[in-house]
Structure formats: structure tokens, C-alpha cells
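#structure-requests
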Amino acid sequence: TKIEGFEKLGQKMIEAFPKEQQEIMDEELSKVFSEKNIINNFNQIFFAIPKKPVAIDESWENSYMQKSNEFDFKYNITSQLKAVHDDSYEIDFIGEINTLEGAVLKKLNMEMNIDMQGTSSGKIFLHKDSGWIKNSDNQSKITGKMLMVKPSKMNIDVDIDMKYQSKDGKIDFTQLPPPPKAPTSKKQNYYQE
């Protein structure tokens, strides 16, 4: 995959800032608008598009990385063309989500080791003409552990169910069930050493 012209987007954003802030913004935005990051973002959006023509009920695999809070998630997705409609392609997908081994979150004086894994599945309808998502209905479940090692030691169990839907370009991002209340005892999947 090759992306051309992405530098212009970052440059236009930098030019919108006052002259005295442009150097700092150039440094920060160059991290965000790198060719690697933009390709990664497009891979996240277009993972359900096969690299070659496929028949109904044929499957294909794609992998991509997603940067999240300073550590990466790797997605391994299997997609399958389920039907061809007048204006769209119907695609089912299922896959695995994993943090990379040795994932660490460092913010201010805090350091946390991250080990999470999960699944993602759903259905996507892609516009025939553009390839853009027309509608989607997706669900993910992520479980794992976070171990705070600085400033003190603390283990946190992670259990997240998410549902993501889009219809006609509008997105609804819902967490299922509602987020739990802060734990009141060490027995509630949250403990400090």
C-alpha cells in the first residue's frame, strides 16, 4: 500500500497555528501523519476488502495494528463474502485481538504492563461503488490484566464488551453492559499489592 499527498494534510494543519507554535506542531503532527500511521488507519477501515476478487462464501484473512494509549493491539481478521445486493456487498468477519508481548503504558510517573486479548465479530455492508462502509454491526470482547509497576504495584483485571454500529455514515459506539462502579473491595477483580 502506498499513500501519496498525505504530507499536504499535515502541512495545512501546521500552517493554521501561530508562527511561534508551528515548529512544535510540526514535530507532533509528523508522528500522527506519518505514512505508516495513515496506512495503518486505512487498513483498520478497509480490512474487510479482499486483495483479489472472491466468490460468495469465500473467505480471506487480513491483519493490522491499532495504536491505543501508547501500546498496540494486533487484529487478525477472517472475512467472508455472504451476499451481493443491488448496491452493496455483505461481509461477515471474526477475529482475534491481542496486545503485543511486552506492551507497556507510560504516562507521567505511572508505568503499567498490559496483557489483553479478545475477539471481534460482526457484519459489514460495503457500498459497491465506493467501497465505503454503508452499515455495520460489530461486537468485541477484550479481557486481560494490567499491572501497575510505578508508582506502586497494583493489578487490574480487564473485561470489556463493546458494540459498534454504523448506519448511513452515522456511528453509534456503545459499551455493553454499562461500565462497572469502582470496586469497593479486593475481591472485585481489582487489588493492590
